[in-house]
Model the fold of this input.
Amino acid sequence: MNSELRDQILAYLEAHPKGKRKLEDIQAVLGMTSSLDFVSLSKELEEMEAEYLVFRSDENQYQTREEAGIVEGRLSINRAGMGFVDREDAESIRIDARDQMDALSGDTVLVKCLPWQIYGQVVAVTKRSRNHVIGVFENTGHGLHFVPDDSKLRSILLRVEYAKDFTPIEGMKVLCDITKYGKPLVLKVVKTIGYKDDPGVDISSILLDYDIVSEFPDEVMEQVHSIPQEVPESDLIGRKDLTNDITVTIDGDDSKDFDDAVSVVPNEKGWTLKVSIADVSHYVTENSPLDVEALKRGCSTYVVDRVVPMLPHELSNGICSLNPYVVRLTLTAEMQVTPEGKIDSYTIYPSYIRSTERMTYNNVNKILNGDKEVQEKFKHLGNMLFDLRDCADAIRKERHRKGAIDFASTEAEIKVDENGHPIAIEPKHTGHAEEIIEDCMIAANVSVANFLKWQEIPAVYRIHEEPSAKRIRTFVNVSEQMGHKLVIGKSNIYPNELQRYLESIRDTDEYPVLSMMLLRCMQRARYDARCLGHFGLAEEDYLHFTSPIRRYPDLVVHRMLRKYSFEHSTEDRSKDDKKCQEYAEQSSIRERASADAEFAVDDMKKAEYMLDHIGEKFDGIITGVQGYGFYVELPDTVEGLVRIADLHDDYYSYNADRMELIGQRTKRVYQLGMKVHVVVLGANKEEKTVDFGLVGKNGRVMAREKDRRERMKEARKRHRRAVKDTRSRDGRKKKHR
Done:
């Protein structure tokens, strides 16, 4: 590849008339007169065509991607087989099944679609979203057949291959590698996960589908076992001794890995706040087996009944964890916070601490709320927690002044029994203690980002770009239809504009829905080697420094601090700049996979939970409206669909601009934020879906009676079958013990 020649070719195509773009035209303008030049140019153009950087028309005229109507994007395929690729400021491109080539849903594709067209064709797949398929062998009445977990793959022609000594059994869940894309999609069985109704297999299947593996390679565990579980005196040399400070970790009741500790002392200038973070980089050295595996994982994944850690438990819960009463190695961001909450100055240095106490959010909230019994139990901490509260509150107030956006989003806490069956779902509630830690961590992250940027030290930054104008325009229209006006600038969008808007609607019934819709308008935060700012936090400099046990970018930041700030390396920094961009891209990919897996598990467990509540009625709020129905969220965060086909009292049409369904005869309207009463008609654990029926004012369910009875009957039957299969397997296991 000749990058200089490529740049010249692209510059020519962008600047010259469309009729003069043949090979000989480009050759003449670039002054490539010799036969050797001709061969070189021809070869480069062929390579650029193969990489889809340029395209050739029927008249042998070369075109850029944009001129050829080529759009790159992520392909989404719905259950009907229609594909969609989003465009930034235009309607999504639609792609019929016959025009999708061998692309699968989630693949990154190049689509040919001119600006005035709606339908396009896939011309190439540039990145595959999956290299494996998980499914179960089921008896469909014509023998055993492999049924993929992903319903979007069930309409695709599949061919499943396996070793001669492998015997498929009904109900067996397996992992298959994709050995050939196309029609058929060729799969090879490589691993048996278990049986579909065995406890834990459902979650294991989802994790494996996102390449999240619990087991660590042997070479990683060998390295782990060579690491001592106590800090030797020699490791303390060159570090600042903070063991006499009152320092605490504050985490959830069930947490076992503690990677951040805080200490605060009031002074005449405000407060000295110290955020000390586990020095994981001391143990996980660059390019070691531990480091290679940590980069591959990218982060830890937290699902309802387990944690898949980025680092083995011997590190994450052991020598790297800031456990109470023992010496641990740390990196500390020491900040002088003014009474107004500004970071007046900061220093960052290697240190070691001895955590005074392992505190929980629950206990800290009780102390701050005046619980005398808990206050007495932790009286040896003095006023430290109250000083910490005052310091953090000042920081939060300053963040608010700068325009940081506080979205209303509710996470679900799903409780399961010993078999992994969900028995309760409750919205997570955060108290003052959770806010305190968040504020302290953000302050440390901002300080470290500012330091690395001005020192020009290579780093992985956390960036959050401003939302697209197209999405914000759509949101403005919907919000105004609901009676709430959002005023934004004509050119740029600023965080404080959105902050003021959210504050103005905070006490309205529509606030939860509009806040969530606005959150969905935001760009996805990601990692980058460039410091591009964080829109949501209204910060120019931001990165992740505070969780190196569970996030790889934090580990890289620690490593770069040590190399260039503490050890004063004079090495050429360009190599590490390039590495940091590679780390950023990998970490962004793995973070998304981890988040998607966590959401998928939550959705599956919510559907499984609702199988126990078929026929029960609940109050909810409409959170989404589409042409096929509307989504309703219950107070416990479970979301289900009311299908338009079940609204038999009228014919409803969909108004996309107003995002509402309108009855042609009754003029009844179903719109975002509306409170409704629903009944659970059905749920499907495999599909991760819940079906609701609307309950009218007379108490009657608005669903076709026959469909309603059959749906509820089928849901109950499917649930009983699953419970029966689980119990029978449990019985067999006990018998064989």
Summary: Residues 726-737 have pLDDT under 50 and may be disordered. The first helix runs from residue 3 to 15. The CA atoms of residues 608 and 685 lie 5 Å apart.
